[in-house]
Amino acid sequence: MKLIKKSIALIFTISTLTFNAQTSKDLNTAFSQSYDYEAIAKYDAAITAINNVYSATSYEINLRMGWLNYMAGKSKESIGYYQKAIALMPAATEPKWAIINPYTVLENWTEIEKTYLAILKLDSKNATANYNLGLIYYYRKDYFSAKKHFDVSLNLAPFGYNNMLMSAWTNYFLGNKNEAKILFNKVLLYSPNDKSALEGLALIK
Questions:
Q1: pLDDT band at 11 (very low <50, low <70, confident <90, very high)
Q2: pLDDT digits (tens, 9 = 90+) for 111-161
Q3: What is the Cα–Cα distance from 94 to 63, expressed in whole angstroms?
Q4: Spatial separation of the C-alpha atoms in residues 169 and 189, rounded to whole Å
Q5: In 3D, which of 113, 77, 109, 115 has the Cα closest to residue 96?
Q6: Run of H or E including 27
Q7: DSSP class of residue 42?
Q8: pTM, entire model
Q9: Who contacts 18 (Cβ-Cβ below 8 Å, separation ≥6)?
């Protein structure tokens, strides 16, 4: 009886290994085909290749499908796949950065804001997320919130052109004229005769 059980277990193990090997081979083939189709801008064909091996529980597949659908101009479908990838790997910033692309196409600034905030929960000092979030608040004329995020980016790259210029304008609109003047002058060190910086200095004078 024990011999029979061992034999059954061995057969099951071999079958599982064979199945996994076949699955892995199918995945490799599908991904390879999708890259080939993507290279010649045949995005629907690339999507079909991945769909043939699609699994809702695969992070890699959902991430790939998110990208391919975005490239195919299918923003809503892209978002759906990226959301699945985010749910599968909540500690990853990769799919969060990726989902911003289709959100941007749809001009869904509320979700973009939420996504940047989610990224900052995982990576609070990320310069790009802080700067872009600062831009969102700046164009909403929420200069107080904009400054909070621009300050992080400026501290990380004090001589970065965009950081200095946007921080200067934000301080100007907040009434911090001295700070704005200092930053506008630093912008001119980076970009002599910069029109925006000169405009800001003219307003302060």
A1: very low
A2: 999 999 999 999 999 999 999 999 999 999 999 999 999 999 999 999 999
A3: 9
A4: 16
A5: 115
A6: helix 2-39
A7: -
A8: 0.84
A9: none
DSSP letter string over 84-123?
HHHHH-TT-SHHHHHHHHHHHHTT-HHHHHHHHHHHHHH-
Confidence of residue 2 (pLDDT cuts 50, 70, 90): very low
40: DSSP letter: T
Tell me how far apart the terminal alpha carbons of the chain are, to the nearest angstrom.
Answer: 96
Tens of pLDDT, residues 102-121: 999 999 999 999 999 999 99
Distance CA 20, CA 30 (A): 15
Among residues 66, 23, 24, the alpha carbon closest in space to that of 46 is found at: 66
CB 69 within 8 A of CB 77: yes
Which residues fall within 8 angstroms of residue 53, CB to CB, at 6 or more apart? 23, 26, 27, 30, 61
Give how far Cα 50 sits from Cα of 3, 26, 62, 138, 151, Å.
42, 10, 9, 40, 43
Reported as a pLDDT band with limits 50, 70 and 90, residue 5 is: very low
